[in-house]
Amino acid sequence: MTLIDWFSVLSATLWISGLAFLLTLFGFARAAREKSTRQVLAQPHFRVAMMLGIVLFALGMGLSVEMWFERIGWGVVTALALWEAYNARRQRGTQ
Length: 95
Known about the structure:
Number of helices: 4
């Protein structure tokens, strides 16, 4: 009988969901007819959503690696993405 490694399933679910979310955002931005894709992605609400997708991806990758320095690296990516999402949210609130 084989046992399922649920921790690996969880970590894979996180990073795959993050990538799927980012691809969906790029698709919506590409479908916008009134502005270019770059202009749409630069809007604060799209930046917040992109950073949250990157956070999901980085969390999943951080949980799936073995070495401590890789976990620290993915933790830094997660922290930077959260910081950028916070700044974009503040900017969205002032507009």
